[in-house]
Amino acid sequence: MPKDKTKIKKCLFPAAGYGTRFLPATKAIPKEMLPVLTKPLLQYGVEEAISAGIETMAIVTGRGKRAIEDHFDVSYELEHQIKGTSKEHYLTEIRDVIEKCTFSYTRQIEMKGLGHAILCGETLIGNEPFAVILADDLCDNDGDSVLSQMVKLYDKYRCSIVAVEEIPLEDSNKYGIVTGKTEEDGAIRITDMVEKPDPKDAPSNLAIIGRYILTPDIFDILQETKPGKGGEIQITDALLVQAKKGGVIAYKFKGKRFDCGSIDGFVEATNYFYEKW
């Protein structure tokens, strides 16, 4: 892999999915805008990127997702209405995010999988390493955020990094599953990965979650990647090409992760953050 010395400056958010598991709520509201307490899932992700020193947010959206752009913009009428009242502080967090970050958007016209969504973001990213956050996976930490931990690891290895966690083997058909050789610092140099294998075919119980750091050659690989599991272009298949050259590290992150793409995980996250509130 090329030894790219570029700092991670951009984070890509694939946000074009339909959110069918949350219908009818997501019929008119993007699933990324569903709130855990008072904050949309996507804002949690953006704040995690900021915590990792990233201030350029690239968001891949789709039809019916204008609420995302509106959220990360100033609402002059709302600001005017609550200015000087006891409610003004409610906008402090999102104002801070808007002031710190630059947001750019592109659309994924057809839903062809996560790999395709990431490829759609190439025009926003360019030829540099970048982070990817899937807002469905909401993470919480007492110390460094998951993405902050991964950026530090990238500084050491200068290759693609994927966050992984141990899962019950019977759930392997829901995730990309990896296996590899453990490095001296506990990181895992991936030798194989499979998208959503049956439990009997899973090479391990280490599942990729929605945090990645990718080197820019991933775009050329995705261009050549054929549709895989489910007829979609899978990021796992593209990462395997890098892994065969020793270019992907799996990292067992420190922290707690909630699968907010499922109702059970969403409720669990809501209860957890309410207890911390």
Structure commentary:
The protein has helices at residues 41-51, 66-71, 76-82, 92-100, 114-120, 122-125, 146-157, 217-224, 235-243, 263-276; strands at 10-14, 35-36, 39-40, 56-61, 102-107, 130-133, 137-140, 160-166, 176-182, 188-195, 206-214, 248-252, 256-259. By secondary structure, it is an alpha/beta fold. It has a single domain (10-276), classed as Spore Coat Polysaccharide Biosynthesis Protein SpsA, Chain A. A hairpin with a 5-residue loop joins β9 (176-182) and β10. α5 (114-120) crosses α8 and α5 (114-120) crosses α9 (235-243). It is globular, with a radius of gyration of 18 Å.
What labels describe this entry?
single chain, 277 residues, alpha/beta, Spore Coat Polysaccharide Biosynthesis Protein SpsA, Chain A, two-stranded antiparallel ribbon, 13 strands, 31% helix, 25% strand, globular
Q: Which fold name fills CATH's third level, the topology?
A: Spore Coat Polysaccharide Biosynthesis Protein SpsA, Chain A
CATH superfamily: Spore Coat Polysaccharide Biosynthesis Protein SpsA, Chain A
Q: How many beta strands in the DSSP annotation?
A: 13
Q: Given the C-alpha coordinates, what overall shape results?
A: globular
Largest sheet: 5 strands, mixed, barrel
Proportion of residues in extended strands: 15-25%
Give, in spatial order, the strands making up the sheet with the most strands. Answer: 8-11-9-10-12
Structural class: alpha/beta
Please provide the ordered H/E string of secondary-structure elements. EEEHEHHHEHHEEHEEEEHHEEH
* Helix-residue proportion: 25-40%
Total helical segments: 10
**Rg of Cα set:** 18 Å
Number of domains: 1
Uncertain runs are: none
Give the distance, in angstroms, between the N- and C-terminal Cα atoms.
Answer: 44 Å
The averaged pLDDT comes out at: 92
CATH architecture: Alpha-Beta Complex
Main CATH class:
Alpha Beta
